[in-house]
Amino acid sequence: MPVTFAPAAKPAAYPRKLRELHNHHFDSTVWNDLAFRADDVVVSTYAKAGTTWTQQIVAQLIFGGDPEVSVAEISPWVDLRVPPVLVKLAALEEQEHRRILKTHLPVDALRFSPRAKYLYVARDGRDVAWSLHNHHFHATDAWYEILNNTPGRVGPPIPRANPDVAEYFREWLDGDGAPFWSFWENVRSWWAVRDLPNVHLVHFEALKRDLAGEIRKIAAFLDIEIEAESFPRILRHCSFDWMKANAARSAPLGGVFWDGGAETFINKGTNGRWREVLTAQDVANYEAMALAELGPECAAWLASGEAA
Q1: Residue (of 134, 127, 129) closest to 169 by Cα position
Q2: Hey, how many other C-beta atoms are within 10 angstroms of the C-beta on 288?
Q3: Closest CA to 112 of 247, 17, 34, 206
Q4: Superfamily per CATH, domain 28-304
Q5: In percent, how much of the chain has pLDDT > 70?
Q6: Dihedral of the CA atoms 134, 140, 144, 150 (nearest 10)?
Q7: How far apart, in whole angstroms, are the C-alpha atoms of residue 296 and residue 298?
Q8: How far is CA 7 from CA 11, 14, 15, 16, in A?
Q9: Cis omega before residue 232 (within 30°)?
């Protein structure tokens, strides 16, 4: 469904919410009753595209490099359908610090606020699928119980993951994100609003190439002045090695929903693992689909984090 914009007479054309999304994970209606604040930060991704990494960056910027900050506790996935809506909204209302809100929704299913700042994080779909397979394949029975049997689920339950990662990728690609949600519409919808003054695009590969530079860009976008003495701490606490060693601060409930715990949730942080597994035809199919779904400019950016 295309994104519809507000009348052009306004200083900026902000998207309107056009639909609700519900499944084993989503309840997009949570956003309808959220009271936005002027300094809210929304971290948006498809999933497994650098979400937690970006939440960590934002939290470290807001809290000045504090190693005790736990993004798992302070930065909830707003449209996840558990815990109940009223519980989640009450917890967010009680927060006194600058809030960091997480979403995996496409723009047209999100209540978009001109007051908030939106960071959209992207990653090559092949790398997303590889990371998603690790997340899905190592999920515990408790993960399936919560998602499939908590009252309010709409649609079919989420099935067990195919243990073969290449077959998992093919199923995910052919089903446009199945059994989760559409990959292409998520990327496409955020790319369409990239020129709004309160939207900033981030790419996983760019974070890997120049973490310090990307953190400074994010800080400038969020109007956060970094104190010189705190930047080395911020940079250290946003490194993959530090996050892996302190994974319980990032994983929901300390990682109880994954075999291997939080260290499974914060997995490898690498790209390109698909290169030695996918066939040339698999790669060609993905790249043709990216071009058809996104157009050449967006497809090139998604693949590398750089403009075409």
Answers
A1: 129
A2: 11
A3: 17
A4: P-loop containing nucleotide triphosphate hydrolases (3.40.50.300)
A5: 92
A6: -130
A7: 6
A8: 10, 9, 10, 10
A9: no
* Beta strands in the chain, from DSSP E residues, in sequence order: 41-45, 100-103, 117-122, 199-203
**Separation of alpha carbons 293 and 185, rounded Å:** 8
Q: Are 153 and 24 in contact (CB under 8 A)?
A: yes
List beta partners, residue 119. Answer: 43, 200
Q: Which two tokens stand for residue 277?
A: 């597994």
Hey, is 102 helix, strand or coil?
A: strand
Nearest-CA neighbor of 128 among 48, 205, 215, 62? 48
SS3 percent helix, strand, coil of the chain, rounded to 5, is 45, 10, 45
What is the rounded average pLDDT of the residues 80-108? 96
Q: Is 64 left (phi over 0), alpha (psi -120 to 50) or beta?
A: left
Q: Where are the domains of the chain?
A: 28-304
Cis peptide before 7 (omega within 30 of 0): no
8-state DSSP, 98: P
Question: Please, what is the Cα angle at 144 between 189 and 177, to 5 degrees?
Answer: 25
Give the side-chain half-sphere CA count within 13 A for 27: 19
In Å, what is the CA distance from 108 to each residue of 101, 105, 120? 17, 8, 14
- pLDDT mean over 238-265: 76
Q: What is the pLDDT of residue 283?
A: 98
Q: State how far the alpha carbon of 171 is from the alpha carbons of 149, 155, 162, 168, 188, in Å.
A: 24, 19, 9, 5, 20
Count of Cβ atoms closer than 10 Å to residue 269 Cβ: 16
- What pTM did the predictor assign? 0.92
Bridge partners (DSSP) of residue 191 are none
Dihedral pair phi/psi, residue 211, rounded to 5°: -60, -45
